[in-house]
Amino acid sequence: MSEGLRESLRAGAQLALAGLAAALLLAGTWALTHARIAESEQRARREALQIVLPATLHDNDPIAEAVQVQAPAWLGQPSSPVYRARRGGEPVALVFEATAPDGYAGPIRLLVAVDQAGRVLGVRVTAHTETPGLGDDIEAGRSDWITRFSGRALGDPAPSRWRVARDGGDFPQFAGATLTPRAVVAAVRRALQFVATHGEAVRAAEAGATLSFDDAPADPPPAR
C-alpha cells in the first residue's frame, strides 16, 4: 500500500471518529436536557391550568386524563389537547387549548375552561404577537378584559350578542384595536359551541384517545 493511500485512509478514519464523537456528544446532551425540558413544559402546563381551573373543583389529574381533539373549524388549530377535570369520578369541566387564527398580528393562543353546565370558568391568553400598547390588553397582566368571559355561556349573552360592541355585541373592544378582541370573542364562542355539540363525546372517550370532528360551528345570527 502506498504512503499516499495510507495517509488518505488515516485522514478518513480520523474524520469518521470526529463525526462519531460529535454525534455521541449531541446524543448525550439531548438525553440530559430532554427530561428537564419535558418536566419544565409539564410544570408550565399545570400552572396555566390552575389559573383557569381552580384545584378545589376537581380531585383528578386533568393532564393524565387528557384527550387529543382534531377539530380545526371549532378550536382554530389542527389538533388540540383537551384536559378533563373530574370530582368523585364525575365530570366537572373541560379545558381547551384553542387558537384565534384571525388576530390582528397573527394567531392568538388561548386556554379556555368550561364547566359541566356550559359556563366559562376562565380564559387566558398563552401566546400572541399583537401590538404592544394596543392589542396586548387581552393579557390578564395588562387589563381585566379577559376576565369578562368568566361565568358567561352560549345563552348569556344571547348568541347574536357574542360579539364586540362595535359589531352590536356585549364585549368591549379596545381603542384602535378592534380586530384583536373580536378574534378572541369568536374563539371563545366557538369553544362553547364545541362543548354544546361534542362535549359528551369528549368526556366519554378513553384517556389518551384522539377524536376527530370534521363539522363546523354555525355563525351566530346578526346582532340587532
Largest sheet: 6 strands, mixed
Report strand %: 15-25%
Category from helices, strands and their pairing: alpha+beta
The unreliable regions are: none
What is the N-to-C order of secondary-structure elements (H for helix, E for strand)? HEHEEEEHE
Number of strands: 6
Helix content: 25-40%
The averaged pLDDT comes out at 86
Give, in spatial order, the strands making up the sheet with the most strands. 5-4-3-2-1-6
Total of DSSP H or I helical runs spanning 4+ residues: 3
Shape category: globular
Function: Part of a membrane-bound complex that couples electron transfer with translocation of ions across the membrane.
Keywords: Cell inner membrane, Cell membrane, Electron transport, Flavoprotein, FMN, Membrane, Phosphoprotein, Translocase, Transmembrane, Transmembrane helix, Transport
Subunit structure: The complex is composed of six subunits: RnfA, RnfB, RnfC, RnfD, RnfE and RnfG.
Subcellular location: Cell inner membrane
Label this structure with key terms:
3 helices; 2 domains; alpha+beta; 224 residues; globular
Secondary-structure map with pairings?
Elements: H1 3-52, E1 67-70, H2 72-75, E2 80-87, E3 90-100, E4 108-115, E5 120-127, H3 179-204, E6 210-212
Parallel strand pairs: 1-6
Antiparallel strand pairs: 1-2, 2-3, 3-4, 4-5
Task: Please give a structural write-up.
The protein is of the alpha+beta class and 224 residues long. The protein has two domains: 1-52; 58-212, no CATH class. Helix content is 36%, strand content 19%. It contains three helices and six strands, in the order αβαββββαβ. It has helices spanning 3-52, 72-75, 179-204; strands at 67-70, 80-87, 90-100, 108-115, 120-127, 210-212. A six-stranded mixed sheet has the order 5-4-3-2-1-6, with helices on both faces. A hairpin with a 7-residue loop joins β3 (90-100) and β4. The model has no long low-confidence stretch (mean pLDDT 86).
